[in-house]
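Table S2 (text version). Query chain:
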Amino acid sequence: MEYDTIAAISTPMGEGAIAIVRLSGDDAFEIADKLFRSIGGKKLTEAATHTIHYGHLIEPKSKQVVEEVMVSVMKGPKTFTKEDVVEINCHGGIVSVNRVLQLVLTNGARLAEPGEFTKRAFLNGRIDLSQAEAVMDLIRAKTDRAMNVALGQMEGRLSKLIQRLRQEILEILAHVEVNIDYPEYDDVEEMTHKMLSEKAHFVREEIKKLLQTSEQGKILREGLSTAIVGRPNVGKSSLLNSLVHENKAIVTDIPGTTRDVIEEYVNVRGVPLRLLDTAGIRETEDIVERIGVERSRQVLQEADLILLVLNYAEQLSAEDEKLFEVVKGMDVIVIVNKTDLEQKIEFDKVYALAKEHKVVTTSLLEDRGVNELEEAIASLFFAGSIEAGDMTYVSNSRHIGLLSQSLQSIEEAIEGVEMGTPIDIVQIDLTRTWELLGEIIGESVHESLIDQLFSQFCLGK
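Corresponding structure-token output:
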């Protein structure tokens, strides 16, 4: 398959030691040769693959030196895109890298679309669709666990499992065809029903195992939306600062200091949290604070985890009790803060209201109790779980949806066998399961979906 030659900046924009402009396509070497003058005078088209060369980029018409560069040469198919690839390493300034890119574009290359390098790797058979999606997950990973999950998927762990399940289904379908083609043989029909039942149950259990990892996998990929709530001046902003290990939120003794929702990402024992420090929920006449309180209530409805903060030095108020009602049915950790002050809170009431939820005491001023809180958060979502490196996690919403549909389809096939449904009818559900699993790895997926998925990638990847 032939494509035009694309180019893009593959490193973040800004000042740095090195920036990289990447070219991929049939004319990558020819375009680079127009511009590059190596110190030894050797052309890139004549260079050995996977070598790097020092020299200068020259403007072809004026012969002026544009940049001092190191150029990497990689000949297809042993490259990421399976095409000829050239990477121009230049100085990492905004002006420098843009000059190099413009020079490349005016001499035959086309600016790559977002994710087009990875899209070509998929279209050229270098990786499947689930591995391609894992590339972006790896870039966006916010914790070591999330990175391990993405690496496993990039290496094809999920792909191999899906391919094995599809092969099992193909074997079932082959036996079904024998049964349909040779109905006069009773033993073939009996063997087919028995094999169909056994293998369909096996496929169902494997899909169930994958779906059991989906909740944790999605958390690792997308992070937990975590709302810090409580009355004004109980220490919500101090809690955010303690978890982030930085003074992100303004802390004062004046109630109502936080007027809006403050958002920050933090890694807590391998669990990525999207922390949302909300305005203290209370009745107020201040119009700005009232808007902040309303936004806090909205955040509560969308949060995966609630950190409900109480004041150790004050008795439980009606507002505190109302908050327990608001977060009823959610994943909640109750934090009793300011243990450095004299106790006035009634812990019997706290435990009665918290019920099965974990209660942690802290003195954020003296940095006490934060480790216990982090442990409570990690154990709430990963208690007794296997580490990410030991199993295949499903973390992508598209994959989870397709696996759920596959499970429903294989269960309908099993139900059909048990009810004595004609085997050619059962075959329809089996084929549907095979197709749905194929969509995960891109074996049976619409072109418009491929375009949509790769459009979400960053430019140059």
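Notes on Table S2: The chain has three domains: 6-112, 141-213+394-445, 223-382. Residues 247-261, 280-292, 384-390 have pLDDT under 50 and may be disordered.
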